[in-house]
Structure formats: C-alpha cells, structure tokens
Amino acid sequence: MAIKQGTDELILLRPVGAKEDADKVMWITEMERETEKDRDTEATMDGSVNSGGSLESTVTWTCYMNHDDTLADEVEDATEEDRPYEVWVINKRVQKNGKYKAEYRQGYFNSITRSNEADGIAEFEVEYGVYMKKIRGWATLPDVIEQNKAQYGFHDTVASDPANDGLAESIPQPNEPSTATKPTSDK
User: 141 vs 96, 105, 165, CA distance in Å?
Assistant: First the structure.
C-alpha cells in the first residue's frame, strides 16, 4: 500500500467565472484543509440536544515567492477587493479516464501574509474561506501543468536515450553552445 505524500497534491486556482486555465500554486511548503461544524449542546431533562451548527471550511497554504511572482499580488488584491476564486486540490497520483482525483471549492481569500527574513526565502501564507462546501470529482490538468508534473521521465542505459529533462534542462549539453562566459585575457 502506497502512503500518500504531501508532494502528491497540487493546488490550482483562478477567479470565479474566468474563461482561462487555472494557475498552479508553485513551491508550496505546507498545505492544510480544515472543516469544522460549530455545534451547540444544551442539556435537557431527557438528555443532551445538539443544534445543527454552522459549517466552516478553510484551505491554507504557505509557499515561496519568485522575484517576478504575480500570484502573491493577485491573491492580495483579491483579498482586499473580495473577489471570489475557485480552488482545486488535485491528487496527481490518482487517475481515472485521464483525469485526476480532485476537490473543488469556491470562496474568498480571508488573509495573505508575506514574510521576508534576512537569511531566508521570501514566502507568503494564504487562508482561503470556502463558500458552502467542497465537491469531490475528477479534474483535467491544463497542458502546461500536465507536461511538467513529473520532475523527469525514465531513461534507458543506452546511448540512444540520453536524459533531456529534469537536471539536464539546466545543464548545457555537449551539442549546445556553452552559456558560461569565458574569462578575458589581460593583454
């Protein structure tokens, strides 16, 4: 039996009603989904009675930011302007008919906190409040995410199958011009 890992799940989001592919939240270090029901209990002569209570559900995540990151600005603006968003939590390890097991939510961002430490990586933490409740189903990953969800593919040990993905994408290959600058000689 395979144990579910934190890296098995992705978060995608987009503004409610937008006719565009959802964006993947990158570099998530932590994600939490919490659902609770506020129930009141009252003692009666015949025993305790529970009230139905109200449902409250949130999704929170913390992730690193890139220098040209526009997602943090987008989420902060949506928080300030009360713009609703759709959020999918997708399990990239469970597939059925070419789609992935997913949880779908609509709601609003309750908060965003940006933190920058002198000796650390800039990050932001988001709390997303769910409207009503989540729906489980099967989601399609946008093509750009589908193509990049695996770090690298399997390669054989023979010369005809060299690695051209994963680490190889950032390493100059023998058949490519070098991207390193050559030192200039003093004359």
Answer: 13, 16, 20
